[in-house]
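Risk mitigation, structural track. In case the binding assays with adenosine-5'-triphosphate fail to produce interpretable data, a predicted complex structure has been prepared as a fallback.
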Amino acid sequence: MENIIELKNVHKSFKGFDIKNFSIAVKKGFVTGFIGGNGVGKSTTIKMIMNLLQPDSGTVSVFGLNYKEHEKEIKQRIGFVYDENILYDHLSLNQMKDIVKHAYENWDDHLFNHYVELFDLPLKKKIKTFSKGMMMKASLTMALSHHAELIIMDEPTSGLDPIFRRELLEILHQLMQDGDKTIFFSTHITTDLDMIADYITFIHNGEHIFTKDLIEIEEEYAIVKGGLELLDREIEQEFLAVRKSNYGFEALTANKGRAEEVFGDMVIMEKPTLEDIMYYTKKGAEQHV
Ligand SMILES: Nc1ncnc2c1ncn2[C@@H]1O[C@H](COP(=O)(O)OP(=O)(O)OP(=O)(O)O)[C@@H](O)[C@H]1O
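Fallback model:
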C-alpha cells in the first residue's frame, strides 16, 4: 500500500515541548484521523507536513517527494485547511479566489462555483462578516477547488455546530468516493471519526502512540472491569492504565486476548471509545512516570 505522507524519526523542540522520534506513514486512498489531547503536538506535526515548520532532525516526505527539491509540486497537490483564519478578511470570497487561483495550475472555477453553491456562500460579502461555519466552508472551498489529491485539515470540525459537522463529514465522505483522494485531519472530536476514518494516528506528549485501522482497534483494545482481588503488580503492568476505587478496578488493555486468557469470565469487558483510549493513555503516561 502506497504511503502518501511519511515522517521518519522526526524531532522538533520548543522550549518545554518536544516531538520525539516521530515516525508515521499515511496511506494513500484512505481517511486518517489524527487524534490527541490539547498541546500534544498535532498542529506542530501538521505544520511540518506542510513545510510551515521544519524538523530539527528526521525527514518529511509527501507523495514520496522532499520539500527541499519539490516544494512547489507538493503544494500543488495538497488542499490545506488550517484551523485559524488564513483568508484575508477584508476581501470578499470572489476577490480571495482571484488571488488564490493563480497559485494553482489545476484551479477549477467550475468546482469552486460548485462548492460555493453547495455551501450557500456569499461571493461578494467581506469575509470578515462570515461566521465560523462560513469561514470553514470558505477555507474548504479553496482547498477543494484545485483537484488536490491530498486534503490536510487541522481541527476542521472544532467550534462547528453538530449539524454542520455532520454535513462537513458527509462532504468529505463524498469526496472519498471519487477514488484517488487521501484525507489526513486532526480532531478532538473523536466521535466524528467513527463516521469517516479508516485509520487513526494517535499522538501523546509529542510521541507517536499508534497508527491502526479502526477495526484493529476494536479487536485489540478493551476496558476490563473487575474486583480488586484480581489484580496483582504483575498483571497491573500489562494494562495501559488502571483506575481503582473501593468497588473494583477499570483498566484499558491493548491485548484483549491476553486479558480474556488471564481473567476468563471473572471480569466484564467493554468496547472502549477512542475517547476512552485517549483518556486512559494519558492516565497511563502519568502512572508510569
Ligand atoms: N512556535 C512555537 N514556539 C514555541 N512553542 C510552541 C510553538 N508552537 C507550538 N508550541 C508548543 O508546542 C506544544 C504543542 O503545540 P501544538 O499546537 O502542536 O499542539 P496541538 O496538539 O495542536 O494542541 P491543540 O489541540 O490544543 O491545538 C504546545 O506546548 C505549544 O505551546
